[in-house]
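User: Please predict the structure of the protein below. I'd like the answer in structure-token form so I can feed it into my own downstream comparison script.

Assistant: Understood. Taking the following sequence of 325 residues as input:
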Amino acid sequence: MTFEHKKVSYNDLLRATNSFSLENRIGSGTFGVVYKADIRFGRTMIAVKVLNLDQSGAFRSFVSECEALRNVRHRNLVKILSVCSSIDHQGNAFKALIFEFMPNGSMETWLHPNACTNLPFRDLTLTERMNAAIDIAMALEYLHDVPIVHCDLKPSNVLLDDNMTAHVGDFGLARFLFGSDTVPAQLTRSTGGIKGTIGYIPPEYGMGSQASTQGDVYSYGILLLEMFTGIRPTDERFKNGLSLHRHVEMAFPEQVMDIIDTKMFPLDLGCENTFAPENCLNCLVSVIRCGLQCSKELSKERIAMVDVVKELISARSKLLRGEGN
């Protein structure tokens, strides 16, 4: 695997992160830790994902991410700038991925802020959520055309740049597919089973199905419902057969305003100042309908990402231009 990018050494990263200090740590995942680094690629600040090679599957994750990202280019994908494969000062193997730094953090920190978040506290507006939802959908539409399946879409893997544009990242579990959606897809290699994150994993994966674009659609649907209700799919209220999908489905469409995250609106109004309440309602009904269509239990009943993009752009038009249902 080769990258036509600036080379970065282990010592460069050590200095740029102040010896991978806690103060520069901006995130962590199953296979590694992400640090902000004081290195510039032109005008671009960077983030460094250091792989924990003692973790089972970490090296495979590194290879998968390199393979997935080296041949894809899209404005809504996190851009890989370089890689570092070296030896640390203890003589251990060291592998890291260098990405463009996203100053506004992850969707996770905006939807579910906590005391550890360094970002200015405010809530995402309806417009910001709409734009981000479309950004993510367009990234998946592009990936599925390759075809690549992300396999781990969730709020913490969606990053926001300084303009609040959303970028899909973390391709450590991504799969290349042979064939198309009309033919049973085969993985390019054995991966020891499908993994993902509880709450976002499509039900068919738990029954042994292989990775598919429809699986990503399910994860996207859950993410979309979470973005507009403010409720995690793993919320403690969801037990005894109740799920986020079912919770929303029971309220749709008549009581849709009862289940959405009202923090996206000013306290004194039912919608943003610039939009009529009726336009907001029309938009939200369309968005929630799309989320429900994406997260259907049966994969064959889910819509494709190309149609999701069209639906959401239409929903945003209802908000901005006041078009009816």
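That's the full token string. Residues 180-192 have pLDDT under 50 and may be disordered.
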